[in-house]
Amino acid sequence: MKALLVGMGEAGSGWYRRLRSLNGDLELAVSDTNESRREQLQADGVPFYTDAREAIEQEKPDFVINVTPRHAHSAINHLAFDYKLPVLCEKPIAENYEKSMEIVKRAEEERIPFMIAENYRTFAPLRKLKQLIDEGAVGALYSLECEFFRKRQRVTLEPNDELEEVIIHHFDLLRHLSGREVGKLFAVKRHVFHIVMDLQAGIQASFRCSLHSVGRETQWPGDWRIEGEKGSLTFADGEIELTTPEGVQRWSDFSDVAVQTPVQEFLKALEEKRRGETDAKEYLKNQALAHYTRLSLKQGQQVDTSASWGYGPADIRNFLRAELKPSSSHGGQGLVESVRLYGKGDFETPLKFLYYSVLPPGTSIGYHGHRDDEEVYIILEGTGLMTMNGRDTRVGPGDVIVNKPWWKHGLLNDGNEPIKAIVFEIDKA
């Protein structure tokens, strides 16, 4: 495969060295607006261009690695998409959240592979930390705390730029380690950037950051403390410590942990025709948290971030306008009219289906049983006779009837008006 590396600044030079050291058949071409790079690249036998479009036209790469300055990300990403080329892009996706959403939307609509080069989650100790959490070492998570303190040296950032340049890594780790999304967020900043977050499943999280600190520095992924129902995990100074009632375990050697770089994951995802681990659609949620942090700072209050979860619009289906189909129900009398509004594939929980049913006078849902699932009837209109485990009960509007596992039940409309009901079934978890 052939890659076009766009950008040869400080970050791009590092990418260039890493790509050159990769084993395999990866060919490389480079584009940078700085003409002075040409001599070095030609000495290495690597094609060099000052115009990215010309480089794409001439070299016909299989994908683009976008390592340009942040303000140029949008233009290069769109240029690659014009040629239907997959993109591996340095973070952030674009210079602001709105443009990032536009770029991700285009990649999704045109089905172009688009991945962000997030590397903190590829560090071996963080992989081990994630493995321990997933294996239930501390049980259900209660809280995650991260502290990141460094003395700024050569890093020069505009005010609040640390959100996209530094803190976004820790947003990604928070979501990656917890497996949950952030629902609410409150941020303050003076000497220390302090962000408090509420995650799904009632998990609390906090992050404290300073790039003006003196004394002991944390490692770049930060120091982590993760509390759960069974104990706690900490990560600091390259060591993981697990504390439970059974005792303390420590890990400082991670040579047995399989890791791969973002470019290796990107190439593997292309080969396997799947989304990369840090696919841009997923990574956009990290940039959303930077956006909402700025919003919280501006408003001086907690903000709701759930609009960034990417779950799409509400899935609303109207049973009053649905087309009903007549059929015999469990061998009952006559034909019952019904429509399946939702099936098992529509749910992420053990719900199996949701029906709207109309029983004309004289019809019935035949007496039958289930296994480990529970079935619920909600009577909207009409009256009838519900038989449960051999006993008859009169039911009418507003009644909610729960048929528990292994129970038998049936419903007869012995009245003069149709029975209208919502019926849904829940499988054993």
TrEMBL record:
Coiled coil: none
InterPro entries in alphabetical order: Cupin_2, Gfo/Idh/MocA-like_OxRdtase_N, Gfo/Idh/MocA_Oxidoreductases, GFO_IDH_MocA-like_dom, NAD(P)-bd_dom_sf, RmlC-like_jellyroll, RmlC_Cupin_sf
Alphabetized Pfam families for the sequence: Cupin_2, GFO_IDH_MocA, GFO_IDH_MocA_C3
Stored PANTHER family: BILIVERDIN REDUCTASE A
Residues of the GFO/IDH/MocA-like oxidoreductase domain: 127-233
Superkingdom as given in the UniProt entry: Bacteria
Domain Cupin type-2: 357-423
Annotated protein name in UniProt: Cupin domain-containing protein
Residue intervals of the Gfo/Idh/MocA-like oxidoreductase N-terminal domain: 2-112
